[in-house]
Amino acid sequence: MIDAFRRASAGRISAVIPYYGYGRTDKKDQPRVPITARLIADLITTAGANRLLTMDLHAPQIQGFFTIPVDELTTLSILNQYFKEKALDNLVVVATDIGISKRARDMAANLGAPLAIIEKRRLGNTGATETLNVIGEVQGMRALTVDDEIDTAASLVGAVNTLLEYGASEVYACCTHPVFSGPAIQRIASCPVKEVVVTDTIPVIGNKKLDKITVLPIAPLLGEAIHRIHTGLSVGAMFE
């Protein structure tokens, strides 16, 4: 599509990719594996895109893989507003691992809640994880886990079970990208999580719709960003 626009002499091509696939392959963490996040960046740039608009990259340094401007939006304002309206009392925001702790800290500050962090480690290159500890107080509190995406939901189920074992009264979860691959829906359905709140960077359709899954729209956020890009206004000012 980008190549077709370029060959049709488009004056400017902005690629809007809400979910940047392969974002987790941003480094060589095992022998003989590709850095696919960089490869996709090269393909998009070579095809002729002049700018990229995306949301909540798995790792912010992925922006450096591009030689064109990258605007990374965040859905924190959307998720914050939703949970502010729910007005959950005795709330603690929980980062599902240390890597997501900054995002969770920002959300905790916005909601006026304390922060806890689940310390875990990945086992090999299989995606499996082992929970080591919960840093912070969750006993008797409503826990809200924060992550950038839910893929197979194995990490989500592990986090929910760990928090309940540590004494949380109930657990909510939120993320930006509902990948929901493989057994994710079955795991969420049988998991004791109270509610899973996601956005529609990836459509949640068909049998992926569950009563406990709430989908929030990103269209207003994307629309405002696209308007600002094409009128020369600041995109960063949206989050000030």
Structure description:
The structure is a single chain. The chain has helices spanning 2-7, 36-47, 76-86, 101-111, 154-165, 184-190, 219-231; strands spanning 14-17, 51-55, 70-73, 91-95, 115-122, 129-135, 142-150, 170-178, 195-199, 213-216. It has 240 residues and is α/β, with parallel strands linked by helices. The strands form two sheets. Strands 6-5-4-7-8-9-10 form a seven-stranded mixed β-sheet, with helices on both faces. The mean pLDDT is 92.
Alpha-beta content class:
alpha/beta
Strand order of the largest sheet: 6-5-4-7-8-9-10
Q: What does the average pLDDT come to?
A: 92
Q: Tell me what the CATH architecture of the largest domain is.
A: 3-Layer(aba) Sandwich
Proportion in helices: 25-40%
Give the strand tally: 10
Radius of gyration: 19 Å
CATH topology of the largest domain: Rossmann fold
* CATH class categorisation of the largest domain: Alpha Beta
Strand percent estimate: 25-35%
The ordered H/E elements are HEHEEHEHEEEHEHEEH
How many structural domains can be distinguished in the coordinates? Answer: 2
Which outline best applies?
A: globular
Please give the count of helices.
7
Distance separating the two termini: 34 Å
The poorly predicted ranges are none
Biggest sheet: strands, sense, closure? 7 strands, mixed
GO cellular component, one term: ribose phosphate diphosphokinase complex
Protein name: ribose-phosphate diphosphokinase
Catalytic activity: D-ribose 5-phosphate + ATP = 5-phospho-alpha-D-ribose 1-diphosphate + AMP + H(+)
GO molecular function: ATP binding; kinase activity; magnesium ion binding; ribose phosphate diphosphokinase activity
